[in-house]
Design brief:
The complex is a heterotrimer of chains A (167), B (351) and C (290). Chain A is an alpha/beta fold. Chain A has 4 helices and 4 strands, in the order βαβαβαβα. In chain C, strands 1, 2, 3, 4, 5 and 6 form a 6-stranded mixed beta sheet that branches. The chains are: A alpha/beta (167), B alpha/beta (351), C alpha/beta (290). At the B-C interface, helix 7, strand 10, strand 11 and helix 9 of B face strand 2, helix 3, helix 7 and helix 9 of C. The structure holds iron/sulfur cluster (SF4) (5 copies). One iron/sulfur cluster binds next to helix 8 of chain B.
C-alpha cells in the first residue's frame, strides 16, 4: 500500500485509458518490479490509443473521476502502425477544446509509455496524481453531482453482487 | 376593468415584499447577449417588463427542458426508489408575455387529461402569473388570429397594462385577487377607464396580422390528411426542432433512465419533438413519418386540428417564435395562409 | 441577379438539372428556394441577406430533396467549402451536382433583418473572408462586391476568453451551455453533420446523456465541436440554428485555429486537400504528451 495515503486529506481518483501493447504492459512491469507508486489510478485497457474516444474521458469525469491519464505506444511503435498518430491529432484538438471550455490543464495527462518503461509509468502516475491532488476534486457539474466514490479502502455502500462498488 | 393601478415604485416595493417573504420572483431578464430569458430576480430593476418575447417560452418554468422523475438505487437485493417532490415553494412570474401565459393555460388541458401530471400542476399551483400587455409585436406575431391578443388574459392571474407611470391592474383569477388583497396597500385607485381602453386599442394599432381567421383552416384540416397541399411543404425544413423548443405549447417529452454508476440512476423526462426523424422511428427501422413533409404535417395538424378537436382550443398562441427561430425559413403564418387558400379553393373544399 | 436567374432558367430548360437550390424572397426576409421551373428560377435572389448555407440540403439524408432529381446549388465561398467537404468525405459525387458560385461581399447575420449590411449587422464569419469567389464552381455569377464591412468580433471574444482563468472560462461556458435544450438543431442544420446515426442518439452504450443537464449539455457540445474539428467549413449555420443563441462559432473557430496552427489546414473548397482528421504527419507537434 501507499505509505503516503492519508485518509483525512483529499485522495483524487484518476482513470487511465491505456493501450494494451505498450502502456498496459509497462504498467504491468512497474507492478512486477514492485515499484511503489500512488494508488489513485484505475486502469482501463484498450487495444490502441486510436480506440480511445475523447468521450471516454468526458464519461470518466461524469462518473466522478478527478483526473484522467491517456497513454499508449511511442510514435513509430504502434502495434497497428498508425493508431497513435491518429490519436495524437485527435487529442491535440480535444486538449485545446477542453481547456478552452475551462477544464484546468493538469486534469488530463497524455503520455507515451512503452512496455519497458515501468519506471516512466510510475512517474506519470505520481506526477498526474500530484497535479490533480493540487487541483482538488473535480466538481464541474453543479446540480447534477453524482454520489462520491467510496473512500479508498472503505467498502462501497451498496456493493453489487459481483463485488463492484459505485463504479 | 375590475381593476386597480400600481406605480412603478410600489411594484418595486411589492417585489421586495415578495422576495423578502420567500416568494421566488421570476421575470424576463436581459442576458449579456441582449436577449431575454425568464430568470429569478431579486429586485424589480433586474426585470425587463414589456421588452418582447424571452428566448424560451414560459412553459420551460413548468415543464423544464429536463427534470428528474425519480431516482433508483440498488439497496441490498432490492431496488429503492427515491421520489422527487411534487409540491413547490411559492413563485411569482412577473412580466409574462400574454401569448406565453396563454400557452400555459392551453397545456393545462393535456396535462390534466387522462393522467394528472403532478409535476406540472405542482408548479402551476405554486405559481402566480402576472402578465404585462405586450407592445412589442412584430410581423411574425399572429396572437390576434389565435384569439389571444397583446392584452390577452388567458393563463394570467393578473394582467398589467402599462400607463405613464406604472400599470393598470386587471384581476383575472381568484389567485390574482388573493395577491392583490394580500398586498392591498401597494395598489392604487382604479384607473381611468377611457385611458385604459385607449391604450389597449393602441397596442393593436398598426399591427398587420399575417393570417386572418383560423376557423376555416381548423375546419378544413381534419379531413385532409392526404391532401396535395402537404407535398413539398417542408422541403426547406431541416427537422431541427428549434421551433418546438421555443414554442410555448409544444410539450412532447422523452423519458430516459440515466445510470449514474452501476448501482443507481435517475429517470428523467426531456423535451422532444415530432420534427426530428427519430421521434417516430421504430426499433424495426420502420418510420411511419418517413419524410419531413409528414413530420411538418404532424406539427400543423396537432396544433390546429387534433388538439382543438380533443380539447376545444388551438395548440398555438400566435407568438411567432417558431418562425423567428427557424433556420430553414419555414414560416407558420405563411403555411397557414397556403392552407387557408387551399381550403377556400373549390377543389380544396372536398374531403 | 439577372445573370443568376438566366443561368438557373437555362440549366432547368436544357435539362441539365431538375432543381436549382437558391434563395428567394420569403415572408421573413430571404429563404431557401427549390426552383424546379422557369417561374421559380425567375424569383431567385442573391443579396447580403442570403446568409443561409444551402448545402445541408444536399446531404444524403435529405431524401425529399434527392427525389426532385439532379440539383444545382447556389453557393457563396463559405458554402462551396461545404460542397468540397461532402465530396471529400464521399457523401456527394462531384458530377452529381452543378455548383453555381456567387461572388460575395459578406452577408448579414439574420436573413430576416431589414437592416443593410454594416459592421453592426455583418455575419461574424465575413470580415476578413478570403474566399469570396468560390473556386469549386461550374459557373460563377455576379461582380465581386467590396470586402465585407467591419471587423471580426469572434477574434476579440476568443482572445478575451483565453485571457481568463480556467475557472472563469468554465463558468462562462457552463452559463452558455446551461441554456442548451439538446434539440440538436445545431446538428441538423450543419452541412457536415451527415451521419446516418449520430453518436449522441445511440443508447447502447449511451456515451452522451440525452438530458440537457450540465453533464449532457457539456458532453454533447464537446462531441459536436470535436466531430467538426478540421471539418467545419465555418458557414455559421449551427450557431444561427441554435434556438438559445449559444456561441457555437467560438468553439468552431477555436478548433479551426488549432487545425491551422498545428496542422497547417484551413477550410478550403478544394476537395483534394485532405482533412486534418483522418490524416497525420509523423512529426506532428506533441508538446502536450509526456
Ligand atoms: S407539434 Fe409536435 S412537438 Fe409540438 S406538441 Fe405537437 S407533436 Fe409535440
Ligand atoms: S420548421 Fe424550422 S425550426 Fe422547425 S424543425 Fe423545421 S427547420 Fe427546424
Ligand atoms: S464568409 Fe465569405 S463567402 Fe461566406 S458569406 Fe461571408 S464574405 Fe461571403
Ligand atoms: S459546425 Fe457550424 S459552422 Fe461548421 S460546418 Fe457545421 S454548421 Fe457550418
Ligand atoms: S442547437 Fe443549441 S440548444 Fe440545440 S442542441 Fe445545439 S447547442 Fe443545444
Amino acid at each position: 500500500m501507499n505509505a503516503t495515503l492519508d485518509k483525512t486529506s483529499f485522495e483524487p481518483r484518476l482513470t487511465a485509458f491505456v493501450c494494451n501493447w505498450c502502456t498496459y504492459t509497462g504498467a504491468d512491469l512497474a507492478g512486477t518490479s514492485r515499484l511503489q507508486m500512488d494508488a489513485n489510478v484505475r486502469i482501463v485497457r484498450l487495444p490502441c490509443t486510436g480506440r480511445i474516444d475523447p468521450l471516454f474521458i468526458v464519461k470518466a469525469f461524469e462518473r466522478g473521476a478527478d483526473g484522467v491519464i491517456v497513454s499508449g505506444c511511442h510514435p513509430a511503435d504502434c502495434h497497428y502502425t498508425s493508431g497513435n498518430y491518429h490519436a495524437r491529432r485527435r487529442f491535440a484538438f480535444f486538449k485545446e477544446l477542453i481547456e478552452f471550455l475551462g477544464l484546468p490543464e493538469g486534469r488530463i495527462t497524455f503520455s507515451w509509455v512503452s512496455a519497458s518503461e515501468g519506471q516512466k509509468w510510475r512517474e506519470v502516475v505520481n506526477d498526474a496524481t500530484a497535479r490533480v491532488r493540487a487541483l482538488g476534486p473535480f466538481s464541474g457539474y453543479p446540480g447534477t453531482e453524482l454520489p462520491a466514490w467510496p473512500a479508498a479502502g472503505a467498502p462501497a455502500p451498496n456493493p453489487a453482487p459481483g463485488g463492484g462498488g459505485e463504479r | 376593468m375590475n381593476g386597480r393601478t400600481i406605480s412603478r415604485s410600489q411594484l418595486a416595493a411589492l417585489v421586495d415584499d415578495l422576495v423578502g417573504s420567500g416568494v421566488g420572483v421570476v421575470a424576463p431578464v436581459r442576458a449579456p447577449d441582449g436577449r431575454l430569458d425568464y430568470r429569478p430576480v431579486a429586485r424589480l430593476e433586474e426585470a425587463v417588463l414589456d421588452g418582447g418575447l424571452p428566448r424560451l417560452s414560459l412553459k420551460s418554468l413548468f415543464l423544464p427542458p429536463t427534470e428528474p422523475l425519480f431516482s433508483f438505487r440498488k439497496s441490498g437485493p432490492d431496488v429503492a426508489i427515491d421520489s422527487v417532490p411534487t409540491t413547490f415553494p411559492p413563485r411569482l412570474v412577473l412580466g409574462a408575455v400574454p401569448c406565453d401565459a396563454a400557452g400555459v393555460a392551453a397545456l393545462d388541458k393535456v396535462m390534466g387529461w387522462d393522467y394528472r401530471d403532478e409535476l406540472w400542476f405542482g408548479r402551476r399551483e405554486a405559481t402566480t402569473i402576472v402578465s404585462v400587455a405586450c407592445g412589442k409585436g412584430d410581423a411574425s406575431c399572429f396572437c390576434g388570429a389565435t384569439g389571444n391578443g397583446p392584452a390577452g388574459t388567458r393563463g394570467a392571474d393578473l394582467l398589467l397594462l402599462p400607463l405613464d407611470d406604472g400599470f393598470a391592474v386587471e384581476v383575472v383569477t381568484p389567485k390574482g385577487e388573493a395577491l392583490l388583497s394580500a398586498h392591498a396597500g401597494r395598489f392604487g385607485e382604479p384607473p381611468n377607464e377611457a385611458d385604459v381602453a385607449r391604450r389597449r386599442a393602441g397596442l393593436l394599432e398598426g399591427r398587420v396580422e399575417p393570417v386572418g381567421s383560423l376557423a376555416p383552416v381548423t375546419a378544413w384540416l381534419g379531413g385532409h390528411f392526404d391532401d396535395p397541399v402537404w407535398d413539398g411543404i417542408a422541403l426547406r425544413c431541416h427537422g431541427c426542432g428549434a421551433c418546438a423548443s421555443v414554442c410555448p405549447t409544444c410539450h412532447c417529452f422523452d423519458i430516459v433512465d440515466e445510470p449514474e454508476g452501476v448501482t443507481r440512476g435517475t429517470r428523467r423526462r426531456n423535451w422532444d419533438t415530432c420534427q426530428t426523424a427519430r421521434f417516430t422511428l421504430h426499433a424495426s427501422g420502420h418510420n411511419p413519418r418517413s419524410v419531413q413533409d409528414a413530420r411538418y404535417r404532424q406539427r400543423v395538424l396537432h396544433k390546429f386540428s387534433i388538439y382543438p378537436e380533443r380539447f376545444g382550443e388551438l395548440l398555438c398562441t400566435g407568438c411567432g417564435r417558431c418562425s423567428r427561430a427557424c433556420p430553414g425559413g419555414m414560416d407558420l403564418p405563411d403555411v397557414l395562409g397556403a392552407i387557408a387558400a387551399r381550403a377556400a379553393a373549390p377543389a380544396g373544399g372536398a374531403a | 441577379m439577372k445573370e443568376l436567374r438566366d443561368l438557373a432558367t437555362k440549366l432547368l430548360a436544357e435539362g441539365t438539372v431538375n432543381v436549382v437550390l437558391g434563395w428567394e424572397e420569403g415572408p421573413r426576409g430571404v429563404r431557401p428556394a427549390f426552383a424546379t421551373d422557369a417561374a421559380a428560377a425567375g424569383r431567385l435572389v442573391f443579396d447580403p441577406r442570403c446568409t443561409q448555407n444551402l448545402v445541408p440540403y444536399l446531404s444524403p439524408r435529405r431524401t425529399q430533396v434527392k427525389k426532385l432529381g439532379k440539383a444545382a446549388v447556389v453557393v457563396k465561398g463559405c458554402d462551396a467549402r461545404a460542397v468540397a467537404g461532402l465530396v471529400r468525405e464521399t457523401q456527394l459525387a462531384r458530377e452529381d451536382v452543378v455548383v453555381i458560385g456567387v461572388r460575395c461581399g459578406g452577408v448579414i447575420a439574420d436573413p430576416a433583418s431589414p437592416e443593410p449590411l454594416s459592421p453592426a449587422t455583418v455575419a461574424d464569419r465575413c470580415p476578413g473572408c478570403n474566399s469570396r469567389e468560390p473556386k469549386l464552381a461550374d459557373h460563377t455569377v455576379g461582380e465581386l462586391p467590396a470586402a465585407p464591412p467591419g471587423e471580426s468580433r469572434r477574434d476579440v471574444r476568443i482572445a478575451d476568453l483565453e485571457a481568463r482563468t480556467a475557472d472563469e472560462r468554465w463558468a462562462f461556458w457552463q452559463d452558455e451551455l446551461g441554456r442548451c435544450v439538446r434539440c440538436h438543431a445545431c446538428r441538423e442544420a450543419c452541412p457536415m453533420c451527415f451521419c446516418e446515426r449520430c453518436v449522441a442518439d445511440k443508447t447502447q452504450p449511451q456515451w452522451v446523456d440525452s438530458s440537457p443537464h450540465p453533464r449532457g449539455a457539456f458532453a454533447w457540445n464537446v462531441t459536436r465541436a470535436l466531430h467538426l474539428a478540421g471539418r467545419c467549413v465555418d458557414c455559421g449555420e449551427c450557431e444561427r440554428a441554435c434556438p438559445v443563441d449559444i456561441p457555437l462559432g467560438l468553439l468552431n473557430l477555436k478548433l479551426a485555429r488549432v487545425a491551422s496552427e498545428r496542422f497547417g489546414y484551413t477550410a478550403t473548397d478544394d476537395p483534394a486537400v485532405p482533412s486534418p482528421v483522418g490524416s497525420f504527419q509523423k512529426d506532428d507537434a506533441q508538446e502536450f504528451i509526456l
